[in-house]
Design a protein that fits this description.
There is one protein chain. This protein is mainly beta. It has a single domain (about 5-155), classed as Virus Head Decoration Protein, Chain: A (Beta Barrel), CATH 2.40.300. The protein has no helices and twelve strands. The radius of gyration is 15 Å and the shape is globular. The two termini are about 25 Å apart.
């Protein structure tokens, strides 16, 4: 589990992005920071070139929001169905991204300090330390608890 149920984002989400199908065979947990893979021009609503993924490198990555859904590849083309009860999506599907608000996640790199800045980290992690050219995405509201979760306020 990468997100705890306590969160508040007051309807400031983005549903105009698609998850990368380049990671088609990899399951991705919700709660990490999704970054631009490719982006459309102009309004680009419902444009399949608006693609996000967990960035392999934080350097220069452009954050779009925190992933609020699990990404699971299909097990079989004929016998497998999406689990709509937990908002599961497939690679290449539209995803919901948190742009502004707070949530509790364990997708964390480093040791958060209350009031400290939160940055884009590698592989979707939210970093407590600034790396080379890593973008700021918000601030830490709590330190790590016993299970490795912390509250982060996101403002992208």
């Amino acid at each position: 589990m990468a997100l705890k149920p306590d969160r508040d984002y007051a309807e400031v989400t983005d549903i105009s992005q698609y998850w990368s199908d380049l990671t088609a065979q990899n399951t991705q947990e919700k709660g990490g920071i999704a970054c631009v893979e490719t982006q459309g021009s102009g309004v680009a609503l419902d444009d399949t070139t608006n693609v996000v993924q967990y960035a392999a490198s934080a350097s220069g990555a452009v954050p779009k929001g925190v992933l609020l859904q699990d990404i699971n590849p299909p097990l079989s083309a004929t016998r497998d169905y999406k689990n709509f009860h937990n908002m599961e999506v497939r690679p290449g599907d539209k995803v919901t991204l948190l742009r502004k608000g707070w949530l509790v996640t364990d997708m964390i790199s480093g040791t958060p300090v209350v009031g400290g800045n939160a940055y884009v980290g590698v592989s979707g992690l939210i970093s407590a330390t600034s790396g080379t050219s890593s973008a700021r995405i918000g601030r830490w509201e709590t330190t790590l608890d016993a299970d490795g979760f912390a509250k982060v306020y996101v403002d992208i």
